[in-house]
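Sanity check

After download, print the first record. It should look like this:
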Amino acid sequence: MTDLCKEMEKFGKGIGSVPRYRIVEALFSGHKTVSELARKTKLSQPLVSQHLRVLRETGLVQDERQGQEVRYTLNVEHTIHLLKRLAEEIRPKKKRKSSA
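Expected structure tokens:
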């Protein structure tokens, strides 16, 4: 399995469930705490924390401690880089002209 394939597998695992996608969607509007994500997604705080752990492991979300709070944001750079790599890989390769 190539590195790109492994990264895409992790990406799929990250957004491969409705609750995790709802968390990702909630983060589209900016950083949030676990409490804010729980309110926005209507999931319990422990469940949100479990899903955030998976999202961090897959690289889709990053966290930043601010005092006693931990704020979560989308890891946009990682996601864009991954999708660019995928686009380059699936783009048809130009045929080389034979020098005959």
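If your output differs, re-run the checksum step. Summary of this record's structure: The radius of gyration is 18 Å.
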